[in-house]
């Protein structure tokens, strides 16, 4: 579970440019000196974002030493020290906010995913994310989902064929479209979304790899599973932490949730400096 280093570098470089970190007017007032720092997590959370936070200080000043007290995916308690740093004080100040932003955002995604993964308990059902991610940080958020115990759905439009309701509207022949997809992309998964049991019957005959049930109730999902035992069913829409287990028990093989990446609240991190 290692993020792509080139994407991490690109994400961090973009964030440092946005903050104009090397032009920090306030840090420029601080005399050149070595300093120590600690990063604390102020609340219970699932830690995530270490590669991005570490890369912030690597790009600003490679001599900064970091010693992490936990790993991505670890649950940390409130007020836990998660990292100790030492290096030039100015560079530590320049990178503080950018590093904490990555940690607070990705830890929030990992923590929310862990919350839902625990609600599934031991059900044999995959918990999937979606493409409802912050623009420019999809790779980072999907990494955070995996740290929280979820599974990455397609990361881009080029990774799978997913025929949704708007595609249905514009496609003259669904079965022909599925045959065309298999002919053009034989190694690519074909998923078709349905909104009713009547559509399910029609789609089942077309034999996609997965049928996605959009906004079905748990009872409707159970009926769909009974009618379609030979094709994996994915649930999306209307799923909450309280009914997640009901959908899994209804026979869903996969549950995809936009809430894992879009309905999050930043985890509270802080950094404190002192003379070395």
Number of helices: 10
Neighbour order of strands in the largest sheet? 6-11-10-9-8-7
* Count of DSSP strands: 12
Distance between the termini: 34 Å
How many strands, what sense, and barrel or not for the largest sheet? 6 strands, parallel
Which bin fits the share of residues in helices?
A: 40-55%
Low-confidence stretches: none
The rough form would be described as elongated
Please tell me the overall pLDDT. Answer: 94
Structural class: alpha/beta
Strand content: 15-25%
* Element string (H = helix, E = strand): HEEHEEEHEHEHHEHEHEHEHE
Rounded to the nearest angstrom, the radius of gyration is: 23 Å
Describe the structure concisely.
With 276 residues, this protein is an alpha/beta fold. Helix content is 42%, strand content 20%. The chain contains ten helices and twelve strands.
Question: In words, what does this structure look like?
Answer:
- The chain is of the alpha/beta class and 276 residues long.
- Helices cover 42% and strands 20% of the residues.
- It has helices at residues 5-19, 50-60, 89-120, 138-148, 165-170, 174-184, 197-206, 218-227, 244-249, 259-262, and strands spanning 34-41, 45-46, 65-68, 75-76, 80-88, 126-128, 161-163, 190-194, 210-214, 233-236, 254-256, 269-275.
- The strands form 3 sheets. Strands 6-11-10-9-8-7 form a 6-stranded parallel β-sheet. The chain has a 4-stranded antiparallel β-sheet with strand order 3-5-1-12, covered by helices on one side. A two-stranded antiparallel ribbon has the order 2-4.
- α1 packs across α2 and α3 packs across α4 (138-148).
- 38% of the residues are buried.
